[in-house]
Amino acid sequence: MQSIWSQTAEAVPREQLQSDIRADVAVIGAGMAGILIGYLLKSQGLDVVVLEADAVGGGQTKNTTAKITAQHDARYAKMIEQFGRDGAHAYVLMNRSAIDRFEEIIGREGIDCNFTKCPSYLYTTRDPEALREEAEALESLGQPVRFTTDTALPFEVTGAVRMEDQARFHPLRFLYALSQKLRVYEKSRVTQVDGQSLRVNGQTVSANHIVFATHFPFINVPGYYFLRMHQERSYVLALRHAGELDGMYLGVDEDGISLRSEGDLILFGGEGHRTGENSKGGRYEALERTAKSIFPKSRQVAQWSAQDCVTLDGVPFIGRFSADTPHWYVATGFMKWGMTTSMVAANIITDIILKKDNPFAEVFSPQRSTPLASAASLLNLGVQAVKGLARQNLVLPSGTLENLPLGHGGIVSADGEKAGVYKDQFGQTFAVHARCPHVGCQTEWNPDEKSWDCPCHGSRFDHTGKLIDGPAQTDLIPL
């Protein structure tokens, strides 16, 4: 099902690239990050082109909960330990300034996108000590927060951290309006980048600067981002007759829920997991049971899911793509806070290209070194990759096509080989080679979304094998 943003915003189709072109800056990806980067660079007088494989906002932006906030989970106490007080201060200031920049652009361009200032809360129903520490950390960074047990939630909390002057909005109405200010080509997938040249639909795009704003970079070397991130999925319900909340809420407990109002709806999110690890399914059903227990009179009117890149040390990668590619830039690893961090990325990358000093950019640099913060995450990432490759190369499935129930998918044995098969409710089968074309890990069936998901780096494919999400760039091979 479409998100409420897709249901309530109308896009204007853009043309496909059909000839060689030249620009000062080529931005790959027309999601929130790509459009904001393009907009800020164009406002500084540069000639910008945005190249989109699908449609404007057709990737992750349409599936966000659209919170614009510097309150990124309970992370500032940990950030002070990992990056020092200066690094944590830079992080929070860049994200708070992003809220002001959104408000400024919306006012200047006259965009009707339900932009609303509101407080943001982190809450717990268990031991509140970590949130007390978080409040103290934010106060030490000069932020307007307070620890409280008073919230508008319909259940008791043992503690909450309230941050003032955050915001929420309708992301696609904003994005569609802003994209009209730019030269954007849709259905124009970049298949190759070499120096300052890109190949798109058999055409050549030449640019002095190239920005990768593709959610997950599709080029493995240089940069090696596939060794520095994984992807996670989460699920959202739109509830009617659930009342109204004063602000935006995120539970920090393992089973914590995200909540925010949008008109007469409550957006109710949770049930997150690593991409490719949902073989049992039932995420939407579990979320709906939780919603009914909290809002007994509510009625679900929409459901959708999102995918997020998670870095090893918990901070996005924004800046130069690698030391070997001085004219390439990247914005990725937004850690489930893509709306705010997209604006942070636009500000940083614009400053780098214009050769303006930005004293706060270093903490986001893809070339930073945080070995203590990254070691455990790197080990886990390696273990997951080995498991995914082992499933592909060593483990033979015990199931057969005949044993696969109607409406289900899975890895089966066919003539001594592996096959990824989905059998629809009428008995029609769709078979693919389940090997992800990115680095060769075995994809796993996701019954909630009827998709093949890669547990190594998060590429996703529909039941026919068609690519949904990268870093893979090609479909699964049909059988």
Summarize this structure briefly.
With 479 residues, this protein is α+β, with helices and mostly antiparallel strands. The chain has helices spanning 4-7, 32-43, 76-109, 129-140, 171-179, 283-294, 338-353, 371-393; strands at 21-28, 48-51, 67-68, 116-124, 145-148, 159-168, 183-185, 190-194, 197-200, 203-212, 229-240, 248-251, 258-262, 265-274, 299-311, 317-322, 325-332, 408-414, 417-423, 429-432, 444-446, 451-453, 460-462, 467-469. It starts with a helix and ends in a 10-residue tail after the last strand.
What oligomeric arrangement do these chains adopt? single chain
Tally of helical segments: 8
User: How many angstroms does the end-to-end distance come to?
Assistant: 28 Å
The unreliable regions are none
Question: How would you state the average pLDDT, rounded?
Answer: 93
Secondary structure class reads alpha+beta
| Total beta strand runs | 24
Shape: globular
Proportion of strand residues: 25-35%
User: Strand count, sense and closure of the main sheet?
Assistant: 9 strands, mixed
Work out the radius of gyration: 22 Å
Helical fraction equals 25-40%
